[in-house]
């Protein structure tokens, strides 16, 4: 029997009108029962079988893993806090995914019941599959990748963050010892204890100086050479450009090792064959100032060919009509460079030039291969040329001070994320398509 509504409204069957979405929501506390209440038989039995299987299979392991994450073990040499930490984090990730699927089950049952109450017909099996494929295809593709990302990317990140709140170091290493949660003690030590605060300030300031100076110099040199060689009066452009690109063609680690030998204080070619004629012997590897100057010089050598190639390509794409029009208006070389060359180059290469700064901020290879962050500095547990990433490496693999390395990594990640977020906000990366 149907109930007639006001003119223009849909006729709602009596059974559908009495259908209660709240009842469907409460029944779906047991996965699948709400769907069965909505007469979605295949979906209901699928939810019921899969949901009960997951509950039976995962409930106890997840609870056990979370419990181990909380106490990190009770008996030394029997309980390995690292394993418990790994199992606990995986349990939390699996638990969050499980709760998400459970929430989808509740929402699905409630929405289906709401539609049925409003008189919407229950779709056939074929129509249900067709609707799921048409409207849910993006989710079928994204969800497996998201789960994989959670296990491959998010899990190591959570593990590193967790170590920053423990007392894991060389002298308190599992399984001989148990780890304990220490809260923000490691972060407090970074800013209050003299050795750590001095080291952090020194490394952070040098990282900023290194990033700005080395990157700016390599971009400036590349810009100057590209503009100079692009001049019509310069002959053999192809040969000169090929020679300038050669440093980019050689593997960087080989170049760094060669420069390390050349800058050696005793037998290096720079001191022996060049400065020896002036009675000089510069301590490139043993003096902090000269070591930093050498590293900046090497990075300029390694980095400018890439930027030179980018800028050269942009310069060749600028129409000559612009310069001819400027000549007619009496524009000087400086004005043509300022109002034509510079804007065109920056517009085309600005994102890539910004990436050069990001790359040098974490340029571990050069720092490690040249001098392993040295020379050592009195009163610090970091070297004179250590940047944040190389300092973290040294704390992790040389000193086994995992807790402080993790704490510094978090600080470094916050700084980089803040900078990246600022850059993205200045672009259209976070805007929706309909906002353009």
Automatic annotation (TrEMBL):
InterPro entries: MetI-like (IPR000515), MetI-like_sf (IPR035906). It is a multi-pass membrane protein. The chain crosses the membrane at residues 45-64, 84-106, 139-165, 208-230, 242-263, 289-318, 339-359, 404-422. Keywords: Cell membrane, Membrane, Sugar transport, Transmembrane, Transmembrane helix, Transport. Gene3D superfamilies: MetI-like. Its main location: membrane. It is found in: Cell membrane. GO terms for biological process: maltodextrin transmembrane transport. Residues 204-423 form the ABC transmembrane type-1 domain. One of its GO terms (cellular component) is maltose transport complex. Belongs to the binding-protein-dependent transport system permease family. MalFG subfamily. Part of the ABC transporter complex MalEFGK involved in maltose/maltodextrin import. Probably responsible for the translocation of the substrate across the membrane. This is Maltose/maltodextrin transport system permease protein.
